[in-house]
Amino acid sequence: QVQLRESGGGLVQAGGSLxxxxxxxxxxxxxxxxxxxxxxxxxxxxxxxxITADGSASYADSVxxxxxxxxxxxxxxxxxxxNSLQPEDTAVxxxxxxxxWGQGTQVTVSS
Length: 111
Fold this sequence. Notes:
Elements: E1 4-7, E2 10-13, E3 18-24, E4 33-39, E5 46-52, E6 57-59, E7 67-72, E8 77-82, E9 91-97, E10 100-101, E11 105-110
Parallel strand pairs: 2-11
Antiparallel strand pairs: 1-3, 3-8, 4-5, 4-9, 5-6, 7-8, 9-10, 9-11
């Protein structure tokens, strides 16, 4: 069973940056689809970014141009580089590798 460990969340001022990591306990090279989601209390989980095995990435309109998703099969890790963060980006961020979910990491952006 693959386990996922997320890290990199925290508190940042508006305009700042954070990089989230999602490390898998086993090889991810065969996993076609990996994604980042986020959720705020009382709302549904929202898809933020997707990256496929061939490196193709797609983004929610709300983060396009500010967030970058990447994956490095050599260290079994997916990243989400978040720049120009805004208070509306505040949420718990989850990674999803195949059908498995990470535990979530809190991102809080202060105005």
